[in-house]
Amino acid sequence: MKNMGFRWYGDNNDSITLSDIRQIPGVSQVVGTLFDIPAGEVWPKDQIKHLKDEVEAAGLKLEVIESVNIHDDIKIGLPTRDQYIENYIETIRNLAEYGVKVICYNFMPVFDWVRTDLHYLLPDGSTAMAFEQKYLTDDPQSIADAMQKNSNGYVQAGWEPERMAEIKRLMTAYKDVDTEKLTANLKYFLDAIIPVCEKYDVRMAMHPDDPPRELFGLPRIYKNRDDMLKIEQLHESPYNGFTICCGSLGENPQNDVPAIIREFAAKDRVFFIHGRNIKFINDDGDFHESAALSSEGSLDMYEIMKALYDNDYQGYIRPDHGRDIWHENGRPGYGLYDRALSINYLNGLWEAINKDHR
Q: What is the pLDDT of residue 136?
Protein backbone atom coordinates (compact mmCIF):
# COMPACT_ATOMS: atom_id res chain seq x y z
CA MET A 1 0.00 0.00 0.00
CA LYS A 2 1.23 3.45 -0.89
CA ASN A 3 0.79 5.08 2.53
CA MET A 4 1.69 2.35 5.01
CA GLY A 5 2.85 3.85 8.30
CA PHE A 6 4.18 2.99 11.73
CA ARG A 7 3.43 4.85 14.94
CA TRP A 8 6.48 6.32 16.66
CA TYR A 9 6.56 8.15 19.98
CA GLY A 10 9.90 9.92 19.52
CA ASP A 11 13.51 9.48 20.59
CA ASN A 12 12.87 9.90 24.30
CA ASN A 13 9.65 7.90 24.48
CA ASP A 14 10.17 4.85 22.30
CA SER A 15 12.44 1.80 22.37
CA ILE A 16 12.08 1.59 18.58
CA THR A 17 14.27 3.71 16.33
CA LEU A 18 13.52 5.34 13.00
CA SER A 19 16.16 3.12 11.40
CA ASP A 20 14.22 0.08 12.69
CA ILE A 21 11.05 1.42 11.06
CA ARG A 22 12.86 2.21 7.81
CA GLN A 23 13.81 -1.47 7.48
CA ILE A 24 10.19 -2.72 7.49
CA PRO A 25 9.32 -3.44 3.84
CA GLY A 26 6.64 -1.19 2.41
CA VAL A 27 6.64 1.45 5.14
CA SER A 28 6.78 5.02 3.85
CA GLN A 29 5.19 6.96 6.70
CA VAL A 30 5.82 7.65 10.36
CA VAL A 31 2.69 8.41 12.33
CA GLY A 32 4.15 10.92 14.74
CA THR A 33 3.29 12.85 17.85
CA LEU A 34 4.73 15.37 20.26
CA PHE A 35 4.19 13.20 23.29
CA ASP A 36 5.34 15.80 25.81
CA ILE A 37 2.88 18.57 24.90
CA PRO A 38 -0.05 18.59 27.35
CA ALA A 39 -3.56 18.60 25.94
CA GLY A 40 -4.71 22.12 25.22
CA GLU A 41 -1.31 23.66 24.57
CA VAL A 42 -0.12 24.83 21.16
CA TRP A 43 2.35 22.56 19.39
CA PRO A 44 5.40 24.77 18.76
CA LYS A 45 6.73 25.08 15.22
CA ASP A 46 10.29 24.36 16.22
CA GLN A 47 9.35 21.01 17.76
CA ILE A 48 7.21 20.07 14.77
CA LYS A 49 10.11 20.96 12.46
CA HIS A 50 12.53 18.90 14.54
CA LEU A 51 10.23 15.87 14.35
CA LYS A 52 9.74 16.28 10.61
CA ASP A 53 13.48 16.68 10.01
CA GLU A 54 14.22 13.52 12.03
CA VAL A 55 11.67 11.48 10.12
CA GLU A 56 12.74 12.72 6.70
CA ALA A 57 16.42 12.16 7.50
CA ALA A 58 15.51 8.50 8.00
CA GLY A 59 14.00 8.36 4.50
CA LEU A 60 10.37 8.46 5.68
CA LYS A 61 7.47 10.91 5.52
CA LEU A 62 5.48 12.66 8.26
CA GLU A 63 1.96 13.33 6.97
CA VAL A 64 -0.18 11.94 9.80
CA ILE A 65 -0.20 13.07 13.42
CA GLU A 66 -1.75 11.04 16.22
CA SER A 67 -2.88 12.57 18.47
CA VAL A 68 -3.40 16.25 19.03
CA ASN A 69 -5.30 15.58 22.23
CA ILE A 70 -8.40 17.63 22.95
CA HIS A 71 -8.60 19.37 26.31
CA ASP A 72 -11.35 18.09 28.59
CA ASP A 73 -12.81 21.60 28.92
CA ILE A 74 -13.79 21.34 25.23
CA LYS A 75 -15.46 17.96 25.74
CA ILE A 76 -17.22 19.12 28.90
CA GLY A 77 -18.26 22.43 27.33
CA LEU A 78 -16.78 24.82 29.88
CA PRO A 79 -16.42 28.56 29.16
CA THR A 80 -12.65 28.08 28.91
CA ARG A 81 -13.08 25.86 25.84
CA ASP A 82 -12.83 28.77 23.40
CA GLN A 83 -9.22 29.47 24.32
CA TYR A 84 -8.33 25.79 24.03
CA ILE A 85 -10.03 25.66 20.63
CA GLU A 86 -7.99 28.66 19.51
CA ASN A 87 -4.86 26.82 20.63
CA TYR A 88 -5.98 23.79 18.64
CA ILE A 89 -6.52 25.92 15.56
CA GLU A 90 -3.02 27.36 15.88
CA THR A 91 -1.64 23.83 16.13
CA ILE A 92 -3.50 22.86 12.95
CA ARG A 93 -1.90 25.81 11.14
CA ASN A 94 1.54 24.90 12.48
CA LEU A 95 1.22 21.26 11.44
CA ALA A 96 -0.04 22.24 7.99
CA GLU A 97 3.03 24.43 7.50
CA TYR A 98 5.18 21.32 7.85
CA GLY A 99 3.18 19.12 5.50
CA VAL A 100 0.80 17.27 7.84
CA LYS A 101 -2.32 16.12 5.97
CA VAL A 102 -4.28 14.16 8.59
CA ILE A 103 -4.84 14.55 12.34
CA CYS A 104 -6.17 11.50 14.17
CA TYR A 105 -8.05 12.54 17.30
CA ASN A 106 -10.72 11.21 19.64
CA PHE A 107 -13.54 12.65 21.72
CA MET A 108 -13.60 10.11 24.55
CA PRO A 109 -14.18 11.42 28.07
CA VAL A 110 -11.35 10.83 30.59
CA PHE A 111 -10.01 7.55 29.09
CA ASP A 112 -8.77 7.22 25.50
CA TRP A 113 -8.88 3.43 25.69
CA VAL A 114 -9.27 0.83 28.43
CA ARG A 115 -7.76 -2.60 28.95
CA THR A 116 -7.91 -4.74 32.08
CA ASP A 117 -4.71 -6.67 31.31
CA LEU A 118 -1.63 -5.45 29.47
CA HIS A 119 0.08 -8.86 29.48
CA TYR A 120 -2.62 -11.42 28.74
CA LEU A 121 -0.89 -14.74 28.07
CA LEU A 122 -1.76 -16.37 24.76
CA PRO A 123 -1.41 -20.10 23.97
CA ASP A 124 1.70 -19.53 21.85
CA GLY A 125 3.53 -17.87 24.76
CA SER A 126 3.18 -14.31 23.51
CA THR A 127 1.28 -11.68 25.47
CA ALA A 128 -1.30 -9.13 24.38
CA MET A 129 -3.58 -6.53 25.86
CA ALA A 130 -7.05 -7.71 26.86
CA PHE A 131 -10.38 -6.41 28.12
CA GLU A 132 -12.54 -8.49 30.44
CA GLN A 133 -15.58 -6.79 31.95
CA LYS A 134 -15.39 -8.80 35.19
CA TYR A 135 -12.09 -7.10 36.06
CA LEU A 136 -13.44 -3.60 35.52
CA THR A 137 -13.99 -2.24 39.01
CA ASP A 138 -16.22 0.68 39.97
CA ASP A 139 -13.09 2.66 40.79
CA PRO A 140 -11.50 4.16 37.66
CA GLN A 141 -8.45 5.16 39.69
CA SER A 142 -7.59 1.50 40.24
CA ILE A 143 -7.59 0.92 36.47
CA ALA A 144 -5.34 3.94 35.94
CA ASP A 145 -2.95 2.74 38.64
CA ALA A 146 -2.79 -0.73 37.09
CA MET A 147 -2.13 0.74 33.63
CA GLN A 148 0.80 2.76 34.94
CA LYS A 149 2.18 -0.07 37.08
CA ASN A 150 2.15 -2.65 34.28
CA SER A 151 3.35 -0.58 31.31
CA ASN A 152 7.05 -1.59 31.59
CA GLY A 153 8.01 1.92 32.66
CA TYR A 154 6.52 3.58 29.56
CA VAL A 155 3.80 6.22 29.57
CA GLN A 156 0.81 4.96 27.61
CA ALA A 157 -0.86 7.40 25.22
CA GLY A 158 -4.08 8.63 26.81
CA TRP A 159 -2.88 7.59 30.27
CA GLU A 160 -0.39 10.37 30.95
CA PRO A 161 0.44 10.65 34.71
CA GLU A 162 -0.56 14.31 34.99
CA ARG A 163 -3.97 13.46 33.57
CA MET A 164 -4.45 10.31 35.63
CA ALA A 165 -3.68 12.32 38.76
CA GLU A 166 -6.89 14.25 38.09
CA ILE A 167 -9.26 11.32 37.59
CA LYS A 168 -11.50 12.15 40.54
CA ARG A 169 -11.80 15.79 39.47
CA LEU A 170 -12.47 14.79 35.88
CA MET A 171 -15.13 12.26 36.81
CA THR A 172 -16.90 14.96 38.81
CA ALA A 173 -16.53 17.47 35.98
CA TYR A 174 -18.17 15.05 33.54
CA LYS A 175 -21.08 14.09 35.81
CA ASP A 176 -23.61 16.21 33.88
CA VAL A 177 -22.24 15.37 30.42
CA ASP A 178 -24.51 12.85 28.70
CA THR A 179 -24.48 11.60 25.12
CA GLU A 180 -26.44 14.57 23.82
CA LYS A 181 -24.24 17.14 25.51
CA LEU A 182 -21.00 15.44 24.45
CA THR A 183 -22.30 15.34 20.88
CA ALA A 184 -23.21 19.02 21.02
CA ASN A 185 -19.74 19.84 22.33
CA LEU A 186 -18.19 17.90 19.46
CA LYS A 187 -20.29 19.92 17.01
CA TYR A 188 -19.12 23.16 18.65
CA PHE A 189 -15.52 22.01 18.24
CA LEU A 190 -15.96 20.90 14.62
CA ASP A 191 -17.79 24.09 13.65
CA ALA A 192 -14.78 26.06 14.89
CA ILE A 193 -11.95 24.01 13.40
CA ILE A 194 -13.21 22.51 10.13
CA PRO A 195 -13.21 25.83 8.19
CA VAL A 196 -9.55 26.18 9.22
CA CYS A 197 -8.86 22.60 8.10
CA GLU A 198 -10.44 23.37 4.73
CA LYS A 199 -8.23 26.42 4.32
CA TYR A 200 -5.02 24.61 5.24
CA ASP A 201 -5.84 21.20 3.71
CA VAL A 202 -5.73 19.17 6.92
CA ARG A 203 -8.27 16.37 7.39
CA MET A 204 -9.65 15.51 10.83
CA ALA A 205 -9.94 11.73 11.34
CA MET A 206 -11.94 10.91 14.46
CA HIS A 207 -10.97 7.65 16.20
CA PRO A 208 -13.69 5.30 17.49
CA ASP A 209 -14.31 4.65 21.16
CA ASP A 210 -12.22 1.82 22.57
CA PRO A 211 -13.96 -0.33 23.62
CA PRO A 212 -17.16 0.90 21.93
CA ARG A 213 -19.33 0.87 25.04
CA GLU A 214 -20.08 3.12 27.99
CA LEU A 215 -17.59 2.79 30.86
CA PHE A 216 -17.82 4.21 34.38
CA GLY A 217 -21.04 5.96 33.39
CA LEU A 218 -19.23 8.09 30.80
CA PRO A 219 -20.89 8.59 27.40
CA ARG A 220 -19.43 7.26 24.15
CA ILE A 221 -20.40 8.77 20.81
CA TYR A 222 -18.39 6.88 18.14
CA LYS A 223 -19.32 3.25 18.63
CA ASN A 224 -20.90 2.15 15.32
CA ARG A 225 -22.20 3.10 11.87
CA ASP A 226 -25.13 5.12 13.20
CA ASP A 227 -22.79 7.22 15.34
CA MET A 228 -20.59 7.84 12.31
CA LEU A 229 -23.56 9.12 10.30
CA LYS A 230 -24.40 11.54 13.10
CA ILE A 231 -20.81 12.78 13.36
CA GLU A 232 -20.64 13.24 9.60
CA GLN A 233 -23.77 15.40 9.74
CA LEU A 234 -22.55 17.56 12.64
CA HIS A 235 -20.46 19.53 10.16
CA GLU A 236 -20.82 18.56 6.51
CA SER A 237 -17.36 18.80 4.99
CA PRO A 238 -14.93 16.51 3.16
CA TYR A 239 -12.48 17.41 5.94
CA ASN A 240 -14.67 15.96 8.70
CA GLY A 241 -14.04 12.22 8.58
CA PHE A 242 -12.84 9.16 10.37
CA THR A 243 -10.09 6.91 11.51
CA ILE A 244 -11.49 3.41 11.19
CA CYS A 245 -9.73 1.39 13.83
CA CYS A 246 -10.71 -2.13 12.82
CA GLY A 247 -10.06 -3.48 16.29
CA SER A 248 -11.98 -0.79 18.16
CA LEU A 249 -15.09 -1.07 16.00
CA GLY A 250 -14.63 -4.83 15.80
CA GLU A 251 -14.77 -5.10 19.59
CA ASN A 252 -18.54 -4.91 19.17
CA PRO A 253 -19.51 -8.10 17.30
CA GLN A 254 -22.56 -6.28 15.90
CA ASN A 255 -20.28 -3.99 13.87
CA ASP A 256 -19.65 -5.21 10.31
CA VAL A 257 -16.26 -3.57 9.82
CA PRO A 258 -15.86 -4.29 6.07
CA ALA A 259 -19.36 -2.94 5.41
CA ILE A 260 -18.61 0.21 7.42
CA ILE A 261 -15.41 0.72 5.44
CA ARG A 262 -17.25 0.29 2.15
CA GLU A 263 -19.94 2.80 3.05
CA PHE A 264 -17.69 5.58 4.31
CA ALA A 265 -14.72 5.02 2.00
CA ALA A 266 -17.11 5.33 -0.94
CA LYS A 267 -17.89 8.85 0.34
CA ASP A 268 -14.18 9.61 0.87
CA ARG A 269 -14.69 10.07 4.60
CA VAL A 270 -12.08 7.51 5.69
CA PHE A 271 -8.72 9.22 6.06
CA PHE A 272 -6.85 6.74 8.25
CA ILE A 273 -7.02 3.01 8.99
CA HIS A 274 -5.72 1.15 12.04
CA GLY A 275 -5.34 -2.34 10.63
CA ARG A 276 -5.51 -4.71 13.57
CA ASN A 277 -7.31 -7.85 14.65
CA ILE A 278 -8.87 -8.90 17.96
CA LYS A 279 -10.17 -12.20 19.26
CA PHE A 280 -13.26 -12.61 21.40
CA ILE A 281 -12.70 -14.57 24.59
CA ASN A 282 -16.38 -15.32 25.20
CA ASP A 283 -19.90 -14.40 24.12
CA ASP A 284 -19.97 -11.38 26.46
CA GLY A 285 -17.72 -9.29 24.22
CA ASP A 286 -14.51 -9.74 26.22
CA PHE A 287 -11.50 -9.80 23.89
CA HIS A 288 -7.76 -9.75 23.55
CA GLU A 289 -5.56 -8.29 20.82
CA SER A 290 -4.30 -10.88 18.38
CA ALA A 291 -1.92 -11.36 15.50
CA ALA A 292 -3.25 -9.72 12.34
CA LEU A 293 -3.77 -13.02 10.51
CA SER A 294 -7.53 -13.60 10.04
CA SER A 295 -7.34 -17.13 11.44
CA GLU A 296 -5.73 -15.81 14.64
CA GLY A 297 -8.56 -13.40 15.44
CA SER A 298 -12.26 -12.75 15.03
CA LEU A 299 -12.06 -10.26 12.16
CA ASP A 300 -11.67 -11.11 8.48
CA MET A 301 -8.69 -9.00 7.46
CA TYR A 302 -8.97 -10.12 3.83
CA GLU A 303 -12.47 -8.64 3.61
CA ILE A 304 -11.27 -5.48 5.33
CA MET A 305 -8.44 -5.00 2.86
CA LYS A 306 -10.70 -5.88 -0.07
CA ALA A 307 -13.21 -3.23 1.06
CA LEU A 308 -10.39 -0.67 0.93
CA TYR A 309 -9.16 -1.91 -2.44
CA ASP A 310 -12.62 -1.94 -4.00
CA ASN A 311 -13.03 1.71 -3.04
CA ASP A 312 -9.61 2.73 -4.38
CA TYR A 313 -8.44 3.74 -0.90
CA GLN A 314 -5.62 6.28 -1.16
CA GLY A 315 -5.44 7.24 2.51
CA TYR A 316 -3.12 6.21 5.32
CA ILE A 317 -2.92 2.95 7.25
CA ARG A 318 -0.86 1.56 10.09
CA PRO A 319 -0.84 -1.55 12.29
CA ASP A 320 -1.91 -1.17 15.90
CA HIS A 321 -1.82 -2.92 19.27
CA GLY A 322 0.40 -5.84 18.42
CA ARG A 323 1.37 -8.72 20.66
CA ASP A 324 4.63 -8.75 22.60
CA ILE A 325 6.72 -11.52 21.01
CA TRP A 326 10.33 -12.72 20.82
CA HIS A 327 11.25 -11.43 24.31
CA GLU A 328 10.45 -7.83 23.47
CA ASN A 329 9.69 -5.78 26.57
CA GLY A 330 8.73 -2.31 25.41
CA ARG A 331 5.52 -0.29 25.59
CA PRO A 332 2.70 -2.88 25.76
CA GLY A 333 0.98 -3.23 22.40
CA TYR A 334 3.58 -1.13 20.60
CA GLY A 335 6.52 -3.42 20.06
CA LEU A 336 8.45 -3.64 16.81
CA TYR A 337 8.19 -7.26 15.83
CA ASP A 338 4.50 -8.09 15.78
CA ARG A 339 3.57 -4.77 14.19
CA ALA A 340 6.20 -5.40 11.49
CA LEU A 341 4.66 -8.84 10.90
CA SER A 342 1.25 -7.17 10.63
CA ILE A 343 2.56 -4.78 7.99
CA ASN A 344 3.94 -7.64 5.91
CA TYR A 345 0.64 -9.49 6.20
CA LEU A 346 -1.50 -6.48 5.25
CA ASN A 347 0.78 -5.62 2.35
CA GLY A 348 0.67 -9.24 1.24
CA LEU A 349 -3.11 -9.21 1.22
CA TRP A 350 -3.09 -5.96 -0.75
CA GLU A 351 -0.67 -7.34 -3.35
CA ALA A 352 -2.72 -10.51 -3.77
CA ILE A 353 -5.99 -8.60 -4.16
CA ASN A 354 -4.35 -6.19 -6.60
CA LYS A 355 -2.96 -8.98 -8.78
CA ASP A 356 -6.26 -10.83 -8.69
CA HIS A 357 -8.00 -7.78 -10.15
CA ARG A 358 -5.61 -7.05 -13.02
A: 86
pTM of the predicted model over 0.90:
yes
Is 119 considered catalytic here?
Answer: no
Could you read off the pLDDT of 304-324 as tens digits, one per residue?
A: 999 999 999 999 999 999 999
Is residue 197 part of the annotated active site? The answer reads no
Catalytic residue list contains 207: yes
Which has the closest alpha carbon to 156: 130, 122, 118, 127? Answer: 118
Spatial CB neighbours of 207, under 8 Å, sequence gap ≥ 6: 66, 67, 104, 105, 106, 222, 243, 245, 248, 274
pLDDT of residue 158: 66
What is the 3 state secondary structure string of the chain? CCCEEEECCCCCCCCCCHHHHHCCCCCCEEEECCCCCCCCCCCCHHHHHHHHHHHHHCCCEEEEEECCCCCHHHHHCCCCHHHHHHHHHHHHHHHHHCCCCEEEECCCCCCCCCCCEEEEECCCCCEEEEECHHHCCCCHHHHHHHHHHCCCCCCCCCCCHHHHCCHHHHHHHCCCCCHHHHHHHHHHHHHHHHHHHHHHCCEEEECCCCCCCCECCECCCCCCHHHHHHHHHHCCCCCEEEEEEHHHHHCCCCCCHHHHHHHHHCCCCEEEEEECEEEECCCCCCEEEECCCHHHCCCCHHHHHHHHHHCCCCCEEEECCCCECCCCCCCCCCCCHHHHHHHHHHHHHHHHHHHHCC
320 as an active site residue: the answer is yes
Catalytic site includes residue 321: yes
Give the full edge-to-edge strand order of the sheet including 127-131.
Answer: 117-121, 127-131, 287-290, 277-280
Catalytically annotated residue among 72, 286, 320, 338: 320
As a whole number, the mean pLDDT across the chain is 94
Task: Indicate if 327 belongs to the active site.
Answer: no
Question: Going from the N-terminus, what domains does the chain have, and what CATH number goes with each?
Answer: 5-356 (3.20.20.150)
**pLDDT tens-digit readout, 224-256:** 999 999 999 999 999 999 999 999 999 999 999
Q: Which one of 104, 197, 245, 246 is the catalytic residue?
A: 245
**Residue-level length of the chain:** 358
